[in-house]
Amino acid sequence: MAGTKAADLVSKIVPPGVSRLIRVRDAWARAARGPALRRTWPAAVRGDELIVHVHDNQWLHELTYQKNQLLADLQSLVPEAGIARLRFCVGAVLPPPPPPDPESKRPAPPRLAADPPAETMRAMSEVCDGELKNLIAIARYNLGREPHS
After folding, report:
1. Given the DSSP bridges, would you call strands 49-54 and 85-90 parallel, antiparallel or unpaired?
2. In the CATH scheme, what is the code of domain 10-90?
């Protein structure tokens, strides 16, 4: 299995149409900004047409003015999807996924005791390079501090 691309593995279990729709939905979240994103949902792809559900008739009308730009953005973001036309219709609109929280992906920094143990102090004293010794001391200090509230 070494050398097999993740996309090859996914294509074995996810039908191409589903994978295509997922890629288009991801791109739609970047193309339809602001209120339009909350009022629309890419429901299906049929051939070269993306069918987009719209919250109500007012948004159906509003999106006619944005149609060309939305299509151009989609074609730029996912050219491999082959979307050539958009069709808007009033239908069920699912809420967009929440944006990823960049803080949630960061592992919590390790916490060390505020006072370094004797073996750490000995190891730090054996470092000859003054600049490196200073950097180690700063890092050790920061790892022993209480996190900010």
Report:
1. parallel
2. 3.30.300.180
